[in-house]
Amino acid sequence: MNNPVFAATASAPAQVTDRLGRPLRDLRISVTDRCNFRCVYCMPKQVFGKDYQFLEHKELLTFEEITRLARIFTHHGIEKIRLTGGEPLVRRNLERLIEMLAAIPGLDLTLTTNGSLLAKKAQALKAAGLKRITVSLDSLDDAVFMKMNDVDFPAAKVLDGIAAAAAAGLAPIKINMVVKRGVNDAAILPMARHFRASGHILRFIEYMDVGHTNGWRMDDVVTARQIIAMIDAETPLEAVDPNYRGEVATRWRYRDGGGEVGVIASVTQAFCRDCTRARLSTEGRLYTCLFATTGHEFKPLLRGGASDADIGLAIDTIWHQRGDRYSEIRTAATAPLQKIEMSYIGG
Ligand code: SAM
Ligand code: SF4
Ligand code: SF4
């Protein structure tokens, strides 16, 4: 398959842009659709119950398939890969995959986890070549945290995981907190106080209408502006310039030098204009938006003898046709669409 528009040379990898001029830079790879939590905003128990049909093992991309794809993606613009899920640490031998991916030259490799297995695994992840990590934690208060994770998992064990990650040198650690009005909004200030001056960066995420099972309503969203105003009233903040173009979190610094916090305002301040992210599902479908309704199959290519060039061309062609900007055009009418679940394509 030859296509001069996307032709790559050994010295200059092809760099395709989409219909809105955005390059392909970040890839999130979901390594499992399973999770040991049932966060109410992501995998509500009523849907992800005992009878829920998760993918069978043979349907999952193997570590070899993921690594081959990752390598090809890096020749087509990808600079950063985030492993996610589901809960990535429940995938057996994940350390082995990290070792394989860490061997790809120039790749920035990171992982998002609920932290439940981190105390046990932090050292092994670091030894395998992981550099950084993001840990999700929605409250320090067990009653509230358990309401969010819905499996009675205590906050202290996640804090142990964060401490183990720091001790292993997986720094800087980012902490993700999804805020759902009426459930954990009272946890905003205690979380800010706890992580202030810890060296870890706390990021508040607006509750999003991902998937179609979490019963999302705009009324449940505490906006980034409200979150920052709340913290600023207690400990004054000032805005900080982004680290790079397209950074998802807006950065704020404590005026007294006590570190920084971030807000991810995907609902109220859409950042589609700079969105350079693609997502690969556990079974090898590529999605060009978190709110996509359909994906592009790569498993048949991988298992059907396609060459690296064929797969590269497929990547370029899909990205070239991309026009996604869901958050910019979100309305009450789009929220109930049959969008793919976050636990399937990864956050
Ligand atoms: N299980 C891992 C975890 O929770 O960190 C990784 C996968 S999870 C889907 C990735 C991120 O998405 C987490 O930080 C989670 O809090 C966030 N997330 C899930 N559902 C969300 C929603 N409806 N709105 C905003 N963020 C959400
Ligand atoms: Fe699991 Fe993460 Fe979704 Fe919570 S947010 S249910 S931990 S995948
Ligand atoms: Fe990117 Fe889609 Fe999110 Fe917009 S809505 S920032 S295009 S993932």
Question: What does this 3D model show about the protein?
Answer:
The chain is 29% helix and 16% strand. Helix 3 (118-128) packs parallel to helix 5 (155-168). The chain contains 11 helices and 12 strands. Strands 7-8-9-6-5-4-3-2-1-10-11-12 form a 12-stranded mixed beta sheet. The chain has 347 residues and is an alpha/beta fold. The chain has a domain at 26-171 and 275-345: Aldolase class I (TIM Barrel, Alpha-Beta Barrel), CATH 3.20.20. The chain has helices at 63-74, 94-102, 118-128, 142-149, 155-168, 188-195, 224-234, 299-303, 308-320, 326-329, 342-345, and strands spanning 26-30, 80-84, 108-113, 133-136, 173-179, 201-206, 237-240, 250-254, 260-264, 277-280, 285-287, 296-297. The structure holds S-adenosylmethionine and iron/sulfur cluster (SF4) (2 copies).
